[in-house]
Please model this.
Amino acid sequence: MTKSVKENSEVENTLKPFLENLLQEADWAAYLHADPVGIVHEYPTEDQAVVALIVSSLAYGQVKLLRSAARQILDSLGDSPRATIQSADYEEFVERFDGFLYRMTRAEDVADLCCGIKAGLSQHGSLEAVYQQAGESHLERASGFVDFIRANRHRTEVARGLRYLLPSPADGSTTKRLHLFFRWVGRGPDAVDLGLWDIDSSELIMPLDTHTSRICRYLGLTSRKSNDLKTAQAVTASLRDIDPNDPLRFDFAICHLGISGSCIHERSDAHCPGCPLNEVCTLD
Model:
């Protein structure tokens, strides 16, 4: 359980030096090596947005397994996933991905995703152009981006697997993996994020999953109990009070408290004393 926390400016002013220290102490190279975005860094700039969308869409479950699944798909697409997607069709995608199965995602789901990517590249010249023309605010553009990719699938219906692979913010869920994609292409460039697209970093939304949301609650960044879009926006608003221009600057390091095993979501003499956030963590 967590202790009660004070909210708003007092919490944010208290947290800022500790979050800054978390960034200072982060082992960026080790984190990147273990993170899905590390795969995207292996590709040339012209392929990175396409690779980022594929990898982020598969970024659920255990990190080692999802990285393996992403590599399986990317290896099937050859040295230039963008070029292969531009030249192939649904039947070829299914053939290339033959036998692929990662939890709820099948070869046909990834093939539909690739069809949507292909349509974006052929009709608009880039995935960024699809995003930029889809609305006024970032959230509108993100929803429109998903609508476009889904609409250009091959199969008649939007299959459950494709819907899970590429969820829409319009549904009200956290859509963690979609917001992760936009962080990758919209922030930076720095040691982690790619800075490929013209996106105002202040508009990005926290990629919130079960583990990250728990840490955010320990820090008093939200008092909401559910994990949904409103909670992701609440956490983002709290981080925006700390850094108005770049609220997601802290996301990668917070996330890797869980991925690295530094935070086990219970008080531990072996884990907590060395954590840069221990003094402001409300975990009982």
